[in-house]
Every structure is written in C-alpha cells, then in structure tokens.
Amino acid sequence: MSQISEFGTILLFIIGAIAFFLIAMFSARLLRPDRPNSEKLSTYESGEEPIGDAWGRFNVQFYIVALVFILFDVEIVFLFPWAVVFGDANLNSATQGLWSWFTLIEMFIFVAILSLGLAYAWVKGYLDWVKPKPEPIDFESKVPASLYEQINEKYAVRKDVNKTV
C-alpha cells in the first residue's frame, strides 16, 4: 500500500511543476543574451510605432456588446446543472415524475427572464451598432469609361462556354 495519499500525489505534481518552471526560467536567464537597446525597449503594437497616449477612448458599444455576450454565455453555465438534475432517474422515480416537471418549469422561467433581458437591451438600443454615414467619393478616373467596358467585355464569363454538365 502506498504511503502517499491522493492529495499528496497532487501536491508532488504541483511541486514538480513549480520546480520545472523555476529551473527553466533560471537556465534561460543564464543562456540568453542580454543586450537592451532603445529599439527593444519600445512598445510594439502590430508593427506600428505608438502614437499618443495609451489611454485612448473606445466606443462604449464594445463594452456593452461584451457584457451582453457574457450575460448569455453564463446562461449555459446555469443550464448544464439543470440538465443533469432533470435527467436524474432516481429523483424522477422517487417523486413520480414531479421533479422533472418542476425542473422543466424552472428552466423555462430562467430562459424567460433572460429573454426579457435581451428584449430590454434590444428596445433600449444597446444592441444597435452606430453606423457611419457614407461619404461620397469625389474621384474622377483619367481612364475613359469605354476602356473599362472593353476590358469587362474581353474578360466576361460566357454562360454558354462555361456550362458544366
């Protein structure tokens, strides 16, 4: 019989993981070159030089959509235990099926409350995305329109040639 309990085995795994991490970090520190310069110490954002303050303003709509997503994502977390209890044969047989009806009604009430929350967000306009107004482009091409038409006719796909049987 083993002298280590199951919790002791888990503790040994945790200690081993921490030791592995510390050894890897220490050996990487010994082996890597350390030559800092202004290029390496600058902020890197998608290959662009940072301009302005990092605390720029964002559209609040991003946060509202994220919160609505989290609200309905959490719904799944609450519905999973409901499904487990709903399908428990022992509880259903012990209550002659009343437990199934109770949990089913409870689930519908929960989904109805979430639907009311969605309807509220929809009516208040929290789900409407602000669309930019299209601005007309004042561009005049130096290429005549007849040349574009010639190119389109030349490379147009003919329906009778490309039919597949």
From TrEMBL:
Catalytic activity, as annotated: a quinone + NADH + 5 H(+)(in) = a quinol + NAD(+) + 4 H(+)(out)
EC number: 7.1.1.-
InterPro entries in alphabetical order: NAD(P)H_OxRDtase_bac/plastid (IPR023043), NADH_UbQ/plastoQ_OxRdtase_su3 (IPR000440), NDAH_ubi_oxred_su3_sf (IPR038430)
MF (Gene Ontology): NADH dehydrogenase (quinone) (non-electrogenic) activity; NADH dehydrogenase (ubiquinone) activity; quinone binding
Membrane topology reported for the UniProt record: Multi-pass membrane protein
UniProt keywords, alphabetically: Cell membrane, Membrane, NAD, Quinone, Translocase, Transmembrane, Transmembrane helix, Transport
Major site of localization recorded for this protein: membrane
Similarity section: Belongs to the complex I subunit 3 family.
Subunit relationships: NDH-1 is composed of 14 different subunits. Subunits NuoA, H, J, K, L, M, N constitute the membrane sector of the complex.
Official protein name in the record: NADH-quinone oxidoreductase subunit A
Gene name linked to the record: nuoA
